[in-house]
C-alpha cells in the first residue's frame, strides 16, 4: 500500500476537518444539561461523532463524556485513544487561538498538537482504510475523550460500560513509542496540631502561599509577617539571604505587615529538579526566623521532610526501576494561614516495584507526632508494556519505515491515555525535532508532520487491524 500517496490525496480534506475541530473552544467549563464538563468539550465530541457518521462509521456516545467510532468486525478489539478537550489558551497569542490559521506550513491554534491534530490524523488513517475497502480482522475503535486535561471523567465513564480493547495506543505524546509510565499520585500533608512548647516569638507568620497545581513547580511564593520587634533587622536578613542564595525576591511594608516575595522557575511536576521551587526558598529563609509556635512547627517540618525531597527518600519511598527510573516528588502547593495551619500539596510519581500504599502508611505514621496527617489521596498505578511485545514491535517498525530514527522505545514520568488500557502505549505524534508547543501560546503543528503522522498511523493500523501482524509476531 502506498501510504504516503494515499494520505496526500486526503490532505485538503484532512486539514479542512481539522480546522472545523480547532474552531470549537473545547475548554472545560461549567456542567450543563448533557454536557458534564461543559458545552465546548461536548461540542467537540459531537463534531467527531458527526464526521464518523458522515463517513459511515459506527458511532456511540457514552454519558456525553466520551464516544467511539468503530470499523470492522471480529472477536478482538483495537483501540486508539485521543481527546478533544484543550487547556485554556492564556494570553499573548499572535492570532485568535480558536481561529486556526495556516502560516508558513504550520497550523496555529489551541489544541493542534494536544490533541486535536493527532486525533484527526488517527481518524483519517481509519477513514482511508475504510474507503480502500479493507477487511478488518480487528474491530477498531477511535475512542474520544473530553476531560483528559483535567480529571479523566471521560475514560472513567467510558470503561465502566464499554469493553477494554485487547491492545491500543494513544496518539498524544511522542514518537517512537512510550511503553511505560510511572504511577502518579497526589496527596495533601496537613498540619493538624502543634507539638512544640510555647515560646515568645518575635514574628507571627500570617499567610504563606506558593503554587496552584500539584503537577507544576511553583515559580512564585509570598508570605505575610507581623514583626513584633526589630523590623529593620528582619529586612536586612532577608536582603542578605537573597544575595547569599542568588535569589530574586522583594519585600514591602503594608499596614504594619512585612510582605515577602520570591521568584523561582516553573517546571513540570514529573521533573521537579528541573525547576526552582519558590516555596522552598521562602521556607528556607523563614527557618532562620524566630516565628510563632505553630509556624515554627510548619517551617521546621518543611525543612526536614519537604525541601529538596525530589526522590522520595525523606518520605521513605525512594525506589528505582531499570526502565521506569526513580521516584520523583514535586511539592506543587504550599499554603499556610495562622488560623488553619499548613498544607503541602504533593505530586509523587513512582516506578514499578514500589508498594505505594504501604510506604504512605509508614510515612504518615512517622509524621503524626510532628502534628501532620495525610489526606485527599488520588492514585494511578504504574503502566508498563514490555518493549519486546508484538504491539511495540509492529508500531516501531511502522514508524521506522517512514522516519530515519533509531531511537528506542522509552518511558516517562507523565501520564497519557495509554495507561487506561490493559495493553497500551503512547505513539506520537511529536517527532524527534518537533518543537513542543503544547499548553503554550501560539501552539502549532507543521502540516508535513501532520501528514507524516497520518502515514505512520495508516501503516500501523493496516498491519495490525487488517493484516493481523500483531498476532503473527
Major sheet strand order: 13-14-12-11-17-18-10-19
Total strands: the figure is 24
Averaged pLDDT: 94
CATH topology of the largest domain: Aminopeptidase
CATH class of the largest domain: Alpha Beta
How many structural domains does the protein architecture include? 2
The geometry reads as elongated
The CATH fourth-level homologous superfamily of the largest domain? Zn peptidases
Radius of gyration: 25 Å
Number of helices: 12
Give the termini distance in whole angstroms. Answer: 20 Å
Short description:
The protein contains twelve helices and 24 strands.
Descriptive notes:
This protein has helices spanning 3-9, 11-22, 39-54, 112-131, 153-161, 231-245, 278-286, 293-306, 356-367, 390-400, 447-466, 469-472; strands spanning 58-62, 66-71, 77-83, 101-103, 106-108, 139-145, 167-170, 173-174, 178-181, 183-191, 203-210, 220-227, 248-254, 257-263, 320-321, 325-326, 328-337, 341-350, 372-380, 383-384, 410-412, 424-426, 429-430, 444-446. The chain is α+β, with helices and mostly antiparallel strands and 473 residues long. The chain has 2 domains: 3-181 and 383-472, Zn peptidases (Aminopeptidase, 3-Layer(aba) Sandwich); 184-380, Alpha-Beta Plaits (2-Layer Sandwich), CATH 3.30.70.
Amino acid at each position: 500500500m502506498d501510504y504516503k500517496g494515499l494520505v496526500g490525496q486526503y490532505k485538503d480534506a484532512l486539514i479542512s476537518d481539522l480546522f472545523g475541530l480547532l474552531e470549537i473552544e473545547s475548554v472545560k467549563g461549567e456542567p450543563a444539561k448533557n454536557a458534564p464538563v461543559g458545552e465546548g468539550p461536548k461540542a467537540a465530541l459531537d463534531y467527531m461523532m458527526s464526521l464518523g457518521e458522515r463517513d459511515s462509521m459506527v458511532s456511540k456516545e457514552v454519558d456525553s463524556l466520551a464516544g467511539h467510532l468503530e470499523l470492522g468486525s471480529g472477536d478482538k478489539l483495537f483501540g486508539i485513544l485521543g481527546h478533544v478537550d484543550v487547556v485554556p489558551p492564556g494570553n499573548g497569542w499572535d492570532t485568535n487561538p480558536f481561529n486556526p490559521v495556516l502560516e508558513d506550513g504550520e497550523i496555529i491554534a489551541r489544541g493542534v498538537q494536544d490533541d486535536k491534530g493527532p486525533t484527526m490524523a488517527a481518524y483519517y488513517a481509519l477513514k482511508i482504510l475504510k474507503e480502500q475497502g479493507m477487511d478488518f480482522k480487528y474491530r477498531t475503535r477511535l475512542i474520544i475523550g473530553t476531560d483528559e486535561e483535567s480529571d479523566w471523567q471521560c475514560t472513567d465513564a467510558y470503561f465502566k460500560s464499554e469493553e477494554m480493547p485487547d491492545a491500543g495506543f494513544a496518539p498524544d505524546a511522542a514518537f517512537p513509542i512510550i511503553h511505560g509510565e510511572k504511577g502518579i499520585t497526589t496527596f495533601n500533608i496537613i498540619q493538624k496540631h502543634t507539638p512544640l512548647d510555647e515560646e515568645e516569638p518575635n514574628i507571627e507568620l500570617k499567610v504563606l502561599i506558593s503554587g496552584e497545581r500539584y503537577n507544576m513547580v511553583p515559580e512564585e511564593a509570598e508570605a505575610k509577617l507581623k514583626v513584633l520587634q526589630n523590623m529593620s533587622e528582619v529586612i536586612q536578613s532577608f536582603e542578605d539571604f537573597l544575595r547569599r542564595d542568588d535569589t530574586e525576591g522583594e519585600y514591602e511594608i503594608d499596614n504594619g505587615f512585612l510582605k515577602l516575595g520570591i521568584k523561582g522557575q516553573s517546571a513540570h511536576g514529573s521533573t521537579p529538579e528541573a525547576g526552582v521551587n519558590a516555596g522552598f526558598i521562602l521556607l528556607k529563609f523563614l527557618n532562620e526566623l524566630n516565628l510563632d509556635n505553630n509556624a515554627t512547627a510548619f517551617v521546621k517540618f518543611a525543612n526536614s521532610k519537604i525541601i529538596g525531597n525530589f526522590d522520595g527518600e525523606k518520605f521513605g519511598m525512594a525506589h528505582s526501576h531499570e526502565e521506569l527510573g526513580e521516584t520523583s516528588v514535586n511539592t506543587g502547593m504550599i499554603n499556610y494561614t495562622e488560623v488553619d495551619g499548613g498544607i503541602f500539596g504533593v505530586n509523587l510519581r513512582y516506578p514499578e516495584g514500589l508498594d505505594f500504599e504501604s510506604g504512605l502508611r509508614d510515612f504518615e505514621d512517622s509524621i503524626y507526632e510532628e502534628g501532620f496527617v495525610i489526606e485527599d489521596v488520588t492514585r494511578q498505578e504504574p503502566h508498563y508494556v514490555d518493549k519486546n511485545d508484538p504491539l511495540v514491535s509492529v508500531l516501531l517498525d511502522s514508524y521506522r519505515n517512514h522516519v530515519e530514527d533509531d531511537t528506542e522505545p522509552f518511558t516517562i514520568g507523565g501520564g497519557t491515555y495509554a495507561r487506561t488500557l490493559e495493553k497500551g502505549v503512547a505513539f506520537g505524534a511529536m517527532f524527534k525535532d518537533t518543537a513542543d508547543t503544547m499548553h503554550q501560546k501560539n501552539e502549532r503543528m507543521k502540516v508535513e508532520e501532520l501528514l507524516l503522522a497520518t502515514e505512520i498511523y495508516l501503516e500501523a493500523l493496516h498491519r495490525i487491524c487488517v493484516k493481523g501482524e500483531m498476532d503473527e509476531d
